[in-house]
Amino acid sequence: MFISNIASVVKFAINEFVFEDKDQKNLINLNLSDDFEFFDSETLMIYVLFHLLKNSLHYKVKINIWLNSKNKELYFKDEGQGINSDKLYNFSFKNGQYSKIFLFDICKK
Q: What is the CA radius of gyration of the chain?
């Protein structure tokens, strides 16, 4: 683990993600101007982003990703129907620490 800029990690994840077609990348809207540093695993953050991208793009919905440096938060919002509340766990990345993650097994594949 080392200090990283979150905007760089998000950009890297999107550039390395394997899109099904060229139009999928156009569904992503980024606002990374409020960048911040975090001390944690870049690899884990990339896996989380890959998983969120995969699920959102499966349904071909628009995605918004933005940052809040004041609270060191990364927001990922898509226009999909969402997950039933009984199947959802809280996910947050705050001050360099991950809390509960979606019930999905992000490292399974």
A: 14
Residue 35 pLDDT exceeds 90: yes
Q: Count CB atoms within 10 A of the CB of residue 70.
A: 8
CA-based torsion, 43, 18, 84, 30: positive or negative: positive
Question: What angle (nearest 5°) sits at the alpha carbon of residue 76, between those of residues 74 and 81?
Answer: 155
Buried b (16+ CB within 10 A) or exposed e, 25-59: eebbeeebeeebebebebeebbbbbbbbbeebbee
- Decide: pTM greater than 0.85: no
Counting every residue written for the chain, the total comes to 109
Enumerate the H helices of 1-109 as residue ranges.
Answer: 6-16, 42-58
Domain ranges of the chain: 2-98
